[in-house]
Design a protein that fits this description.
Elements (H helix, E strand, L loop, with lengths): L19 H7 L13 H8 L18 H18 L4 H42 L2 E3 L7 H4 L17 E3 H5 L6 H29 L8 H8 L10 H16 L7 H16 L3 H4 L2 H20 L2 H12 L5 H21 L23 H31 L6 H16 L3 H4 L2 H9 L33 H24 L9 H25 L4 H4 L11 H17 L3 H11 L5 H18 L4 H9 L16 H4 L12 E2 L3 E2 H10 L4 E5 L7 E6 H14 L8 E3 L15 E2 L10 E3 L4 H11 L3 E6 L2 E7 H11 L11
Parallel strand pairs: 3-5, 7-8, 9-10
Antiparallel strand pairs: 1-2, 4-7, 5-6, 10-11
Helix pairs in contact: 4-9, 4-10, 4-12, 4-14, 7-9, 7-16, 8-25, 9-10, 10-12, 12-13, 12-14, 13-14, 13-23, 15-19, 15-20, 15-22, 15-24, 15-25, 16-19, 18-20, 19-20, 20-22, 22-24, 23-24, 27-28
Subcellular location: Cell membrane; Early endosome membrane; Late endosome membrane; Lysosome membrane
GO molecular function: ATP binding; chloride:proton antiporter activity; voltage-gated chloride channel activity
Family: Belongs to the chloride channel (TC 2.A.49) family. ClC-3/CLCN3 subfamily.
């Protein structure tokens, strides 16, 4: 990289300048000429000026230049290394710089774990608040309230005198139709109150706090700047409203938003360290580690979190970032485990352990669950994107508060009568995952008992289903339909809303129903050849909870199209190493089935819907176009806006900036030769000219602007020239007009370019930007190119 293009050096740092370290060797009488009548002493003062503040930074909704940021970081690293032997202080600064990466991910992990624990505890308490209150200690949720009670019975372990339902408090009745109606009304009242408070806080204080956050984080990690998306207000409001949204009973989860919360922590802490605050590419390494910490606390899966960051959200993931992500996930999980929000010494609510092995025949129902997951994923993506597009294009989108209230009201009214939809979604998944042991009182475990069984054992043999199981299956079928419909309309409303938990709940319901069906089939037809070899009478062959787990993984995979990270997350959730093959089979099947209907997952679909400039590495470019077909200007367009290296004035450049909206301008030797010199960014030009007018005497509108190494000879009476070689990118990426577009797209993806110049025999022909590539890809896919641009 040319030192002249380093933004840390002064703007008057042309090639005829002497490096600062050489000045003291040459004495004070050394003179320099720059072709004009300006004295050498003035020139020397210019050289010793501070760097221009603001040069090398980016505007909101612009893409960063990865190559330039990496060069800046290498230059900073070289400068620190060259000084570290000069003194103990410089050595200390060098060590601090080397350790700052580990320090920032440690702080991010600590904050993520603490906030996740706080969110879990608060959401549990507020969810139970919809049903009643603990009189002995108001801050206890239902389960904690009855822990110390001596009056609980085995069948009704959640009933104790300390816990009062709203009907008992208001009308003094614990049973009967009056009690039911009062509890129903209070449930709806609290659900609407929480939902209204959540959407109001988001609308007034932090509009960026709505939604899942993962599509935007993917876009930010690919190099896009969205100022305020990872700021302090967004973090505070997202944390508060996430608790309210989960407690309102809406069909959403807190797992996706926890990734956003962790990334906010990473972004805020990165500003404490100059290494990260001044370099957008380095900051994205911290955000990759933060997203791993987010998944680590969301699921209690540190390794799954690292793989999620690698597979799903990160754009640039060097080996150093892998280690730091691992460490951030470890710290976050450790903090959450110390807080112990669920009181079960586990990182998640639905941790389960199974004792029965699976058999080869069971791969068939597992693959069927994978097919269901893929079909659900394809349906959900299409239905949800169609609804979100409708929301954007109709009046309905102008009333976000009303929409949230309507969705919350429908959810509460329909959910209350069914015990499975009234449950908190995480509690529902826990119940569906749990195997039926001797101590289970759930109606899902209401099997007809074998009277001859005298001793209690862990592995209860397969038994015929009782009335409770059949009624539970009907309720689960209704819950499945309800969850499918409501999740489509809930994901995308203006409150924090994750998708992991609702998808897992849908899969767990379907899986549990399939598991009970297979279990009953094996019980009544154990003499069939498929059961005869391995399922004897009185043996515990089928585990319905395992089917729920496999179904949950399949449905989540169908929606997000995650594979490796998803299997590891579910395996860490359940602690069951021997169930990795069923999980892999179901997740892979769901991905294949989903891909048959459309290659993109829900997050990519939302990125495209919002028109973010995101080049997906998973998308293949197979067309045979050339760079000349995509570059601008086209034949019908006006000629390319360019700067010449030494015959334009300050006024000429300012008028070009005012008349165009381009983010940068190629610099050429002359209009006749069209030979390329470099590339200057619009923002850097504006800042450099403003700074020169303030700090340098004699810079006026008619001053000649020079990008060349040597200033041309000027008449003695002409105003002082302005040298801007230091803001020029001397090595912009260029391709020839005959370069195939698939190579150009690959270069943009792998190097994270903003723009690329097109030449022919060294002469400048045009420019290709990231947006040009996205428009071209949309056209080749028969989409409207205007619809994919971010507004």
């Amino acid at each position: 990289m040319d030192a002249a293009s380093d933004p840390y050096l002064p703007y008057d740092g042309g090639g005829d300048c002497i490096p600062l370290r050489e000045l003291h060797k040459r004495g004070t009488h050394y003179t320099m000429t720059n072709g004009g009548s300006i004295s050498s002493s003035t020139h020397l003062l210019d050289l010793l000026d501070e760097p221009i503040p603001g040069v090398g930074t980016y505007d909101d909704f612009h893409t960063i230049d990865w190559v330039r940021e990496k060069c800046k970081d290498r230059e900073r690293h070289r400068r620190i290394n060259s000084k570290k032997k000069e003194s103990a202080w410089e050595m200390t600064k060098s060590l601090y710089d080397a350790w700052s990466g580990w320090l920032v991910v440690t702080l991010t992990g600590l904050a993520s774990g603490a906030l996740a624990g706080l969110i879990d505890i608060a959401a549990d308490w507020m969810t139970d608040l919809k049903e009643g209150i603990c009189l002995s200690a108001l801050w206890y949720n239902h389960e904690q309230c009855c822990w110390g009670s001596n009056e609980t019975t085995f069948e009704e372990r959640d009933k104790c005198p300390q816990w009062k339902t709203w009907a008992e408090l208001i009308i003094g009745q614990a049973e009967g139709p009056g009690s039911y109606i009062m509890n129903y009304m209070m449930y709806i009242f609290w659900a609407l109150s929480f939902a209204f408070l959540a959407v109001s806080l988001v609308k007034v204080f932090a509009p960026y706090a709505c939604g899942s956050g993962i599509p935007e984080i993917k876009t930010i990690l690919s190099g896009f700047i969205i100022r305020g998306y990872l700021g302090k207000w967004t973090l505070m409001i997202k944390t508060i409203t996430l608790v309210l949204a989960v407690a309102s009973g809406l069909s959403l989860g807190k797992e996706g938003p926890l990734v956003h919360v962790a990334c906010c922590c990473g972004n805020i802490f990165s500003y404490l360290f100059p290494k990260y605050s001044t370099n957008e590419a380095k900051k994205r390494e911290v955000l990759s580690a933060a997203s791993a910490a987010g998944v680590s606390v969301a699921f209690g899966a540190p390794i799954g979190g690292v793989l999620f960051s690698l597979e799903e959200v990160s754009y640039y993931f060097p080996l150093k970032t892998l280690w730091r992500s691992f460490f951030a996930a470890l710290v976050a999980a450790f903090v959450l485990r110390s807080i112990n929000p669920f009181g079960n010494s586990r990182l998640v609510l639905f941790y389960v352990e199974y004792h029965t092995p699976w058999y080869l025949f069971e791969l068939f129902p597992f693959i069927l669950l994978g097919v269901f997951g893929g079909l659900w994923g394809a349906f959900f993506i299409r239905a949800n994107i169609a609804w979100c597009r409708r929301r954007k294009s109709t009046k309905f989108g102008k009333y976000p508060v009303l929409e949230v209230i309507v969705v919350a009201a429908i959810t509460a009214v329909v959910a209350f009568p069914n015990p499975y939809t009234r449950l908190n979604t995480s509690e529902l998944i826990k119940e569906l995952f749990t195997d039926c042991g001797p101590l289970e009182s759930s109606s899902l475990c209401d099997y007809r008992s074998d009277m001859n069984a005298s001793k209690i054992v862990d592995d209860i043999p397969d038994r015929p289903a009782g009335l409770g199981v059949y009624s539970a299956i009907w309720q689960l079928c209704l819950a499945l339909i309800f969850k499918i419909i409501m999740t489509v309309f809930t994901f995308g409303i203006k409150v924090p809303s994750g998708l992991f938990i609702p998808s897992m709940a849908i899969g767990a319901i379907a899986g549990r129903i399939v598991g009970i069906a297979v279990e009953q089939l094996a019980y009544y037809h154990h003499d069939w050849f498929i059961f005869k070899e391995w399922c004897e009478v009185g043996a515990d062959c089928i585990t319905p909870g395992l089917y729920a787990m496999v179904g949950a993984a399949a449905c989540l995979g169908g929606v997000t199209r995650m594979t490796v990270s998803l299997v590891v997350i579910v395996f860490e959730l359940t602690g069951g190493l021997e169930y990795i093959v069923p999980l892999m089979a179901a997740v892979m099947t769901s991905k294949w089935v989903g891909d048959a209907f459309g290659r993109e997952g829900i997050y990519e679909a939302h990125i495209r819907l919002n028109g973010y400039p995101f080049l997906d590495a998973k998308e293949e470019f197979t067309h045979t176009t050339l760079a000349a077909d995509v570059m601008r200007p086209r034949r019908s367009d006006p000629p390319l806006a360019v700067l010449t290296q030494d015959n334009m004035t300050v006024d000429d450049i300012e008028s070009m900036i005012n008349e165009t909206s381009y983010n940068g301008f190629p610099v050429i030797m002359s209009r006749e030769s069209q030979r390329l010199v470099g590339f200057a960014l619009r923002r850097d030009l504006t800042i450099a000219i403003e700074s020169a007018r303030k700090k340098q005497e004699g810079i006026v509108g008619s001053s000649r602007v020079c990008f060349a190494q040597h200033t041309p000879s000027l008449p003695a009476e002409s105003p002082r020239p302005l040298k801007l070689r230091s803001i020029l990118d001397m090595s912009p990426f260029t391709v020839t007009d005959h370069t195939p577009m698939e190579i150009v797209v690959d270069i943009f993806r792998k190097l994270g370019l903003r723009q690329c110049l097109v030449t022919h025999n060294g002469r400048l022909l045009g420019i290709i930007t990231k947006k040009d590539i996205l428009r071209h890809m949309a056209q080749t896919a028969n989409q409207d190119p205007a619809s994919i641009m971010f507004n």
